Amino acid sequence: MPHSIDDLFENFRLELRRGCLVLAVLAQLQTEHYGYTLRKALSSQGLVIDEGTLYPLLRRLESQGLLVSEWREEDKRNKRFYRVSPEGETILARLLDEWRGINSSLDRMLNHSEPMEV
Amino acid sequence: MILDLLQRYLQAVKPLLPRKAQDDILRELSENIRCQMEEKEADLGRPLTDAEQEEVIKQHGHPIVVAARYRRPQYLIGPAVFPFYWLTLRIAAAGALIVRFVVEVVMALLSPDPTHAILPALLAVPSVLIPVFFWITAAFAALEICSSFVSMNWKTSWSPRTLPVIGKRSFTVSRTESVAQIIFGIVAAVWWQAVPNAPFLLLGPAAIIIAPGPVWTTLHWPIFLLVTAGVVQACLNLIRPQWTQLRLAVQAAGLGILCLVLRAGNWVVLAPDVHDPARYIRVVEIVNQALFYCFLIGLIVTAVRFVWDCIRQFRTVQSFNPFFSHGDPQQSKNGR
Questions:
Q1: Of B226, B217, B213, B150, which is closest to residue B181 (Cα–Cα)?
Q2: Sheet strand arrangement including A67-74
Q3: What domains can be seen in chain A, in order of their start residue?
């Protein structure tokens, strides 16, 4: 069944975002956050992410050993605080290298490409 | 109200979550919703209305969707195994359908009114496909589970050298097969011509008690012509192995004659000069029953082979060389 351009764009956009979100969450959690403030921090920097995506992602990253968390009281309420683990730091550094490599390649392609001659 | 709605929401999510993490996830989810509500209240400078509270909870999503996101990817067969599963399923389903089709055709031919057998045959299609689908899926699901624990090196252990050679896909009759068919065909033709005058050549010592049924007199010459045609076809295939249509034609004729033989029923009868016929009538029945199963199995095997050869013939016609376009003169030259 043929897809509309909008459907195709949405699929590609989600694919593109999926990997970037992991990178963004790991980068942001170099400073400790609980879920709600993490979401606000990401959002304030232009990366809007809904709870349905963020919380399962945090759990997955924690189960993979890339994050550590603890329940702690703050403002008379128990909150679960997350931060990146040493393994997470290593992965983050490698992912950032990869990201920068891809980014610079794309930049070269987009900035130096010339119109095709017919 | 807020507590009631939130509790109801959490209660709906809880049983759908992974059991070990249920309480932990619910605490975090509850905390997040409360934070959102409090921030909204701070922004508005007043308590939230019921509708606004409901809206905050609703933004989190349907309980089933929310809980599903905390589960591991849920699939029976993962993307790495799926191509092997799909290919196996198609081959198994096609094979099962072919065998069932042949059996149904045979049963239809044997029934007094073949047209009445068509509908049951069509209705039998799901009963063939569903077990195939079930067992293949179950096997690959088990394989998928095992792949989490055991290294599946068969997915990476292939080599391009093990793939079929280009040009070898063509369907030809081997010379050995043709020579064998000529020798056995000539012997069979001579033997068949001798049988009417010497029934012991067909029945052995039992020719004292039983004799060939009338069907063999009716079909004597068609069978002889079929054997002769087989010899002629083998001679031609010895020179032109690629003339496989000839063999398909002989196979089709053979199938037709085998169907006629199967429908006839009384393949042996009591010999005319046998003493005490009542004593041997049971022997005739047993021999006819055994012959029925022999001819039935023979027909099924022949039919399956015929269908298989037809598929090979079709694939040969359809095959192409990906390195040359159809208009490429090199291709045309090689194809001649």
A1: B226
A2: A33-34, A77-84, A67-74
A3: 29-111 (1.10.10.10)
| Distance (Å, whole) CA B219 – CA B225 | 10
Say yes or no to pLDDT of A1 above 70.
no
Look up tokens 């619910």; give the residue. B26
Angle at B242 between CA B240 and CA B244, to 5 degrees: 105
pLDDT band (50, 70, 90) for residue B332: very low
The residues that bridge with A72 in the sheet, in sequence order, are: A79
Judged by CB atoms closer than 8 Å, whether chains meet at A36 and B69 is answered as no
Tell me the C-alpha distance between B65 and B328, whole Å.
56
Chain A residues close to B69, C-beta within 8 Å = 52-53, 55-56
**Is the Cβ pair B31, A52 closer than 8 Å?**
no
Contacts (Cβ under 8 Å, ≥6 apart) of B228:
B185, B189
B330 confidence band (pLDDT: 50, 70, 90): very low
pLDDT digits (tens, 9 = 90+) for A83-111: 999 999 999 999 999 999 999 999 999 88
- B34 neighbourhood in chain A, CB within 8 Å: 77
Least confident of A25-39, B52-66, B109-123, B288-302: B109-123
Burial of A84 by CB count in 10 Å (0-12 exposed, 13-18 middle, 19+ buried)?
Answer: buried
**Nearest-angstrom CA–CA distance, B177 and A7:** 57
Q: Please list, in sequence order, all residues whose beta carbon lies within 8 angstroms of the beta carbon of residue A51, skipping any fewer than 6 positions away.
A: A35, A39, B32, B59, B60
pTM here is 0.54
CA distance B215 to B263: 10
The label of the residue with tokens 């509908």 reads: B119
Which residue, among A55, A61, A63, A82, would best test binding to B if mutated, counting the most B CBs under 10 Å from its CB?
A: A55
Interface confidence, given as ipTM, is 0.75
Write the DSSP string, B1-14. Answer: -HHHHHHHHHHHHG
